[in-house]
Write a structure and sequence with these properties.
globular, 308 residues
Length: 308
């Protein structure tokens, strides 16, 4: 019956219906089948997501029809994220290349970037910023795009992720202000200090990973899991970050559902849990001075994870 489909809106409606009927999971930039189908159809036609509604009546060529229908069927049958199927996605209002080398860009930190990190950066001067565990580079590159006066380092341990991040640096024309560095957290950053460190590190527990829908199996596990409680990387980051922050530096980290485990692990540490438009999203902010004040408790937690 697909021969009856003609317009852009026809294919978006058809894709949304196929996705709903197939019981797909929507967790890679979209949370519903209509937005997911819109992304797939428009991107496959090389059209922006904000085209005027009148374009919805535009008819597809035979080649375009075949391409869109093939992608819809792959989304259903292979459970591939749309971003991987079309090779691109949007984050903080910017388009990024996306493929299996790194997680599909998604984080509530985009809202912070778009709002200028207010009120967290009120009366705080930022010259250098760091995106730790950068993946595709989306957070650090977006920070540079929204703050042209900043110098931004983006760091990952994965060669695959860094190759994609470097492509996105060129894609967004920020080569002069963003540097991609291979490093196991801070190990490759000796002597560097940052006014702001932002991170969306792996924080999925092993049990959670085992229960994830098929869509997530296409993403690198290295970018998702972080020990039994999802906090191995976060605790290590907390233990080391003060040495890489300037005196009034700020650390912002996303830990998602591991928020409760972190609060229970370090109850005396004054994490400030950020409220977003949709509510709490497991993202905290903490000052360098608070990391130093509570360094003993943080160090003990970090050492316990290393069996010391």
């Amino acid at each position: 019956m697909t021969h009856e489909l003609a317009s852009i809106i026809d294919f978006i409606r058809y894709g949304a219906s196929r996705f709903s009927a197939a019981g797909l999971t929507f967790g890679h930039s979209h949370d519903n089948p209509i937005d997911e189908a819109t992304h797939l159809v428009l991107a496959s036609l090389h059209l922006p997501p904000d085209i005027p509604p009148a374009y919805g009546a535009g008819r597809l060529t035979t080649a375009e029809r075949e391409r869109v229908l093939a992608l819809i069927e792959r989304r259903v049958n292979e459970r591939l994220p749309v971003a991987y199927l079309v090779g691109e996605t949007w984050f903080a209002g910017l388009k990024f290349k996306s493929d299996r080398r790194a997680l599909v860009p998604r984080s509530p930190i985009a809202e912070l970037i778009e709002s200028g990190f207010q009120p967290w950066l009120d009366h705080r001067h930022v010259e250098r910023a760091l995106d730790l565990c950068t993946g595709s580079g989306c957070i650090g590159i977006a920070m540079a795009e929204y703050n042209p006066e900043w110098q931004v380092d983006i760091v990952d341990i994965s060669d695959d992720a860094l190759s994609l991040a470097r492509e996105n640096i060129v894609f967004q024309h920020v080569e002069g202000r963003v540097e991609a560095i291979k490093s196991d957290l801070f190990n490759g950053l000796k002597g560097r200090r940052y006014d702001l460190i932002v991170s969306n590190p792996p924080y999925v527990t092993e049990d959670e990973y085992a229960a994830l829908p098929g869509e997530y199996s296409h993403e690198p596990k290295l970018g998702l899991t972080s020990g039994e409680d999802g906090l191995d990387i976060c605790v290590r980051m907390l233990n080391e970050a003060a040495d890489y922050l300037t005196e009034d530096g700020l650390l912002i980290v996303e830990v998602g559902e591991s928020e409760h485990a972190l609060a229970a692990l370090l109850p005396e540490v004054p994490f400030v849990w950020i409220e977003f438009k949709v509510g709490a999203m497991g993202v905290f902010a903490i000052e360098r001075r608070d990391l130093i004040e509570h360094a003993d408790a943080i160090r003990a937690a970090a050492n316990a994870r290393q069996g010391r």
